[in-house]
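We were asked to recover a plausible sequence for a given structure. The inputs and outputs are reproduced exactly as logged, with field labels preserved.

PROBLEM: sequence recovery
POSITIONS: 322
GIVEN STRUCTURE:
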C-alpha cells in the first residue's frame, strides 16, 4: 500500500501520474517527452515529484532506459485501469450527447398523462432506443413524486418562474353528477339552485378551494354566477378521486371534461346545467403546461424528450363529449 497523499492539488497529482504512465509505456524519458510535447527535464521533474509524494521509488533510471520497480509496476497497472475507466466514462458521456440515452423523469397530471402522454411514449422509445423513463402521474403540486423530475406536465397555476413553460391545452370544465344522485335530488335548472344541492368540494394545488363562474352560453359578457363546490365531502390532491366521488353519488362537482369523457360514454355521469359555460377562477385554471429547464441547463436526453413532446402533444386532439 502507498502512503496517503495528504497535500497537493489532485489535478496536479493526476497529471504527474499520467506522465509516469507515459514514461513507463515508452521505456524512456526521451520518448515520453516526444509523445507528450514536454521537455525531458519537465517530464523527469514531474515523475520525481510523484515519487516524493508517494514516498516510493517507481523507476530505476539509466542513461538509455528506465525500468519499473515492484512498486512502480503495481502503480502502473492500477493507474492504467483507472485512466481506462475514466476514458470510457467520458466516451459514454460524449456518445449520450450525440445519441440521447439514459433516464429521464417525467411527472404529469393524471388524466392528461393517461390519455395524451402515455399513448405517444412508444414512438419516443422507438426513436431513442437508449432512453428509459420514470413516470409519475398525480394532480397535486405536492404529490408523491417530488424526486427532481426533469420534465413536468402540470397545471398552469403551478408554474415555476425558473422553468420554461409551454401551454399544451386548456381543458374545458363541466358540472357533473351521477344519474342516481339526480334521480334522488333532481337536477338544478339555474346556477342559483346549486346551493340547495350536496356538492363535492375539491382543492387546488395551492390549497385553495376550486371555484368557477357559470354563464349562459353565448352571453360571455353577461353577469356570471360564482360557484364554489362545498359540501360534506372535500377531496384533495387527486382529481380522479373527485370523479370517483361523483360517480358514487355523493353530489354535484366541477371537473375538467377530459377527466369524465369515459363516464359520459358509459352513462355513469351526466352533465349538470349543460346550457351554461364554465370558466375557471383564473386564466390558468384548467390550463395544462409543459415545464422544463432552460436549454443551457438541459442534457441531450432531456432536450430530445422535450422536443418530442412539444412536437406530439401540442397537436393532440380529444373528442368532444356530447
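RECOVERED SEQUENCE:
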Amino acid at each position: 500500500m502507498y502512503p496517503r497523499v495528504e497535500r497537493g492539488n489532485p489535478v496536479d497529482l493526476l497529471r504527474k501520474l499520467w506522465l509516469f504512465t507515459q514514461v513507463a509505456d515508452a521505456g524512456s524519458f526521451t520518448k515520453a517527452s516526444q509523445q507528450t510535447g514536454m521537455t525531458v527535464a519537465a517530464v523527469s521533474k514531474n515523475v520525481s515529484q510523484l515519487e516524493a509524494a508517494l514516498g516510493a521509488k517507481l523507476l530505476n533510471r539509466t542513461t538509455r532506459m528506465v525500468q519499473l520497480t515492484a512498486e512502480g509496476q503495481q502503480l502502473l497497472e492500477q493507474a492504467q485501469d483507472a485512466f481506462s475507466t475514466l476514458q470510457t466514462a467520458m466516451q459514454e458521456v460524449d456518445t449520450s450527447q450525440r445519441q440521447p440515452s439514459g433516464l429521464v423523469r417525467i411527472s404529469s397530471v393524471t388524466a392528461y398523462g393517461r390519455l395524451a402522454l402515455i399513448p405517444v411514449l412508444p414512438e419516443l422509445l422507438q426513436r431513442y432506443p437508449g432512453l428509459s423513463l420514470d413516470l409519475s402521474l398525480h394532480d397535486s403540486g405536492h404529490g408523491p413524486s417530488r424526486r427532481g423530475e426533469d420534465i413536468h406536465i402540470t397545471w398552469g397555476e403551478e408554474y415555476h418562474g425558473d422553468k420554461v413553460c409551454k401551454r399544451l391545452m386548456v381543458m374545458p370544465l363541466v358540472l357533473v353528477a351521477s344519474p342516481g344522485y339526480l334521480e334522488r335530488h333532481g337536477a338544478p335548472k339555474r346556477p342559483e339552485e346549486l346551493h340547495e344541492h350536496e356538492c363535492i368540494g375539491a382543492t387546488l394545488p395551492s390549497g385553495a378551494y376550486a371555484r368557477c363562474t357559470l354563464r349562459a352560453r353565448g352571453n360571455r359578457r353577461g353577469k356570471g354566477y360564482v360557484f364554489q363546490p362545498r359540501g360534506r365531502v372535500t377531496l384533495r390532491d387527486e382529481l380522479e378521486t373527485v370523479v370517483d366521488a361523483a360517480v358514487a353519488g355523493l353530489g354535484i362537482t366541477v371537473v375538467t371534461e377530459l377527466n369524465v369523457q369515459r363516464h359520459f360514454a358509459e352513462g355513469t355521469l351526466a352533465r349538470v346545467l349543460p346550457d351554461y359555460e364554465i370558466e375557471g377562477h383564473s386564466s390558468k385554471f384548467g390550463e395544462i403546461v409543459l415545464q422544463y429547464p432552460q436549454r443551457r441547463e438541459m442534457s441531450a436526453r432531456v432536450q430530445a424528450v422535450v422536443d418530442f413532446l412539444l412536437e406530439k402533444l401540442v397537436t393532440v386532439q380529444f373528442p368532444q363529449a356530447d
